Amino acid sequence: MTQETIARLRISLNDIEPEIWRSVEIPVTASLKMLHDVIQAAMGWQDYHLWHFEAGDRRYGVPNPEWPDRNLTNARNVKLGSLIDLGVRQLTYTYDMGDDWRHTVVVDAVGPAEPDIKYPRFVAGERGCPPEDVGGFPGFELFLDAMSDPAHGEHQQLRQWYGGPFDPDDIDELAIKRAVAAIAIRRHVGKAAYEKSRVRH
Known about the structure:
Blueprint lengths: L4 E9 L7 E7 L4 H12 L7 E5 L2 E4 L10 E3 L5 H6 L4 E6 L5 E12 L8 E6 L9 H12 L7 H8 L10 H28 L1
Parallel strand pairs: 4-5
Antiparallel strand pairs: 1-2, 1-7, 2-8, 3-4, 3-6, 6-7
Helix pairs in contact: 1-5, 3-4
């Protein structure tokens, strides 16, 4: 079996200080749809909303038959490595067109996979992601202010809406590792089944 090539990516949520970021490793043979799944898992999003990638003047997402978009390329059919081969080292990933969360995805390194590691995998990160449907940047600022101040007029309401306290420094690394590992296991099982089917034929 040939050794896989892996890209290390840094994903940063734009326009928020202190920075909210994650580092992941993903095979260059992965589709942009898988990259979307990995970003969702690593950032802690719930995949409730529309999304797309942008690289140069091209957009990649999952086409909606009810809303045809001739300028949108199907992300399931585009491999990360094909963009890297074209010299792409940075993508923009937008999630939830209402809250408009824009992420910068940078290719930090490309190299051989480590033996006996299932990819993709989570590497590192800092700071908790905004909750789903918090209302974009203005809503997140209000949320942070209210959650950190029990005397704030909206503290109780937002705490109840969120389901408990919110620590902006806690990324819940164990949950992220489990979510990314679940994608890696699905990929590994799919690859094994594909290799088995090829042997049969």
